[in-house]
Design goal:
Layout lengths: L8 E5 L1 H4 L5 H8 L4 E6 L4 H11 L5 E3 L5 H6 L4 E2 L8 H12 L3 H18 L6 H9 L16 H12 L3
Parallel strand pairs: 1-2, 2-3, 3-4
Helix pairs in contact: 2-3, 5-6, 6-8, 7-8
């Protein structure tokens, strides 16, 4: 794929959706390609993140693919996050990453811990059901989803409502 385009590509590593896992060795091979610009690591496996960081260094920028692991990913050499939470709280996620980049680890960690209930709520059901509901709560869109998805149930609504109350 990278050979078929002149555009930079980001490798999405989301084994929970694909059923396939990359190895650190495969990541090292991918990092040598001139159009592979980085890796979205949504494994939830910090040992994997550490191994890829050790194997690739700066030749493969790593982006947290799980909002709840943004600070740990940054601590292991990550460069940012591809975030669901940022749809709702973009300034909060920018602040978290900026604090980390400025060496304000304790403050970044505090922000990371503060968003954990929202991360849990947004992933309490198949994406995008919870985030669509949350976005509807802040007036950004309707909560409508396409089949085969269904509207957020009362459990998801309660979790999202509770998490948003603590952050908005």
């Amino acid at each position: 794929i990278a050979d078929a385009t002149s555009l930079p590509l980001l490798v999405y590593h989301v084994p929970g959706r694909t059923g396939c896992r990359l190895t650190p060795s495969a990541c090292r091979t991918l990092s040598a390609h001139p159009r592979i610009a980085g890796l979205k690591d949504a494994t939830g496996d910090l040992a994997f993140t550490a191994r890829v960081s050790a194997a690739c260094g700066s030749s493969l920028p790593i982006y947290a693919g799980n909002d709840d692991l943004t600070v740990p990913t940054l601590a292991l050499g990550g460069v940012g996050v591809i975030s669901v939470v940022s749809n709702l709280l973009p300034a909060r996620m920018v602040r978290l990453c900026r604090l980390w980049a400025e060496g304000k680890v304790a403050e970044a960690t505090k922000d990371q811990l503060a968003i954990l209930p929202l991360c849990d709520a947004l992933f309490s059901e198949v994406n995008p059901i919870p985030v669509k509901y949350a976005m509807a709560c802040i007036g950004a869109c309707t909560e409508e989803v396409r089949l085969p998805l269904a509207l957020a149930d009362s459990r998801v609504r309660a979790a999202v409502d509770s998490a948003l109350r603590g952050l908005l």
